[in-house]
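Entry 12.
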Amino acid sequence: MSSTATAKTQSSGPVLDWTAGHGPVTGALSATTGAFAIATTGAATAMPPAWALAVGAAGALGHTIAGLRVRNAGRTLATRAASWLVGAGWTTWAMTHGPLTWAALGSLATIGVGIGAATRSTNLYEEAREEEAIAAEQRQIAAELSAERRAIAAEWVERIQRICNITVRVLAVEMWPTNTGYSLDLEPQGGITYDRIAQYAVALSADAKLPHGCTAAATPGTHQGRTILDVTTVNVLGDDCPYPDDYGRLSILTGLPWGVRTNGEVVRAYLREQCALVVGPTGSGKTNMVHDILAGFARADDVLTWVIDLNAGSAGLPWVLPALNGELTSADGKAVRPGVDWLAGTYEEAMLMLDAALAIGLHRKRAYQDLLARANTDLLPISPRIPQIMLVIDEGAEILVSTDRQMKQLAKKILEVIRMLRAMGIRTVLTALGATGSVLGNLMIRREGKVRVALTGGETEGMDLSKMFPGRRGLRVEQAPYKGAGFMGTPESPAALFKAWRILPNQIREITAATSDRHPRLDDVSTKAAGPAYTRRWDAERTAWMRDLPDVEHSAGTEGVGEGLHLSALREQEQGPATPEDEMLARFRAEIDAQFATAPDPHTPTEQAPPAAPGGLNLSALRGEREQGPAWLPEVLEAIKVTGSDGMKPSAVAELVGKDRKTIRAALQAAVDRGQLAYRDNGPHSVYVHPDHA
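Predicted 3D structure (tokens):
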């Protein structure tokens, strides 16, 4: 017979577990059959009946000792001892009078039923005793914990009464699972709201003698009459918090994790409709925070990330170059796509990107009307088939307030994207070096950028948290003096302390490889609208700036040159044709000569010498201000445009830019003369209106 057949034969029939313990039925059956077998054998072999009685007494004694060791109940000990003694007594009687009589068999069956019923009863009683012991232990723990909570509640009731002069009632105390603090559910008396307690956060923290980096922060409760007081007792901000190893799938619709609160809770950013603003001075961990944000976008299957970084594209290069250079491979051996869908490190590329974003948004509004109607919504349904485009603009807030001509063009298009394309799934994440009035003075940023992060790093200059998080009291830079630590607030979660994850370069490469097949493709409607500017974004000539490094030795001008004065004009004659940088400098000098009538370069041929500017010195800066208005005017024009047909009063404009009304009226009237604004005369209610709404 084969081994297979043998296995089948052995596996047939019921399977018995001979190591299992006896239950009430099997135990009674085992006891009665054993007693019957011994009685029959003893009667046939003339065994002395007293032996059976001695064995039964030994069994009763042994089970009693074992039961005492495991602390069984008295009724359990008595039942098991009685079972042994009754069985032994029946065996002794049966050996004397014969076990095969109807009286012997009937009495044995009766004994078996009695043993089974008694065993079942004692088992239930033992289970009940065990459950009661566990419950009593839990009640004791709860009582001890309740006593600790009552002590905490009484302590904070007294502290709030003494420092804030507010009477509160503590409804609950919740200990954090991370053992780093606790939360109190307070009910202030007399119609007091949470912000009254929040303004005393620093004093409460000091009175509670909390460690540095720990706070007592008051936030809204379940309704306006309740307050949640989060008390941190362990400083978790000072140590690095590594980025999680889980690179699982995310969605823009369910929120993207950006870090953790002091209680260990993950804080998420919901960016389907909101823009985000991240500020942080040099050394605060802002670049690391940008990589955290890009990691969340890369893990989402319904997001395409576009990055603008005019500082040599440094924010996006770690997400792009390893893939473009073929240094990464996916798990199935396929080529890896960049972790960023488009990277602009130059002004020209940034203009192409913003133009493409505007074209996509406007085309989506027309092309997806049927989809919006079927979904019965005015927000484009975002999915892997129609992904959201997230524009991450490093130091973008500085671009919006720059007075440079090129930066003004970029700023204009960025504001158009923010203002016009929310419904069509194009949002922005701007970063800035500080929370200053110039950065937060733009109405569009304040209105649309409700997801805000302030990485302080202990820097107090340029970190006005009251402007960054208006209405949120008790926030101080000194509470987060560590790199990567700061405050984060969203419409769903009030501003509070948080810690950004520390993401390392090798993790960026791992995330790029792990999420390559997860990145969505731009929908056909949007691709058609973006045109070649998008489809050819990875062409060699478009990405040459990522790889081409300057010849440091040549640019330093040290090769083959001795000590002493080194004239650039003579160097041009020695080294041949001028470089593009030299040509740009030559054009710049020519413009200066044309403006200020300076003397011509002695090495410039006569036919190339620029003509002297007639009329002497002409200050182009003053001429530009007369022709285009002051530097703050573009911001005012944009703010007036946003107000639509309602317009803005001169007093509102003066408050916006911080200038006196006389200066404002003169500048606005000059803008009217140039056709940039229209004036609606209505007495004390006169306003300036943008020509589009005049």
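Annotation: The CA atoms of residues 550 and 556 lie 10 Å apart. Residues 102-163 form the longest helix (62 residues).
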